[in-house]
Amino acid sequence: MARVTIDSAPIPVTLRWAVRLLWAEAVAVGLIAVWLVWADLTATTTDLASALVTAFAVGAAVALWALGRALLRRQAGARAPAIVLQLMLLPIGWFMIQGGLGWLGVPLMALGLGVGWLLVSPPTTKALGFE
Q1: Domain coordinates of the chain in residue numbers?
Q2: What's the pLDDT score for residue 6?
Q3: For the chain, first and last CA: distance in Å?
Q4: Transmembrane segments in this chain: where (predicted)?
């Protein structure tokens, strides 16, 4: 017997783009995590702080990918954690600007605000059943 889907309405563009951007963030953080793992494995000395940063990067990459996947499946509970992760880009970007890396901090802040907006936009809200 074939599986029946209850909601066959097309996924709105805002939700599709939010998922794509979450997955792009997951890939970027994943590449950073791979570099951090390599740096930890080839370091002459190791410390707890660098291991924790590496573990955080790996966890963030996995979380971003999983949240994107859950949102694609229209699981409403994934929206709030995804928004929180996007809001975390604001202080990161701010400290980058303060540290002289405005060329990276400003786009990170814009990305966080943009994906956050996509996640709370009316079409996404309706598709996730919050209406």
Answers
A1: 13-127
A2: 52
A3: 32
A4: 21-38, 50-68, 80-97, 103-120
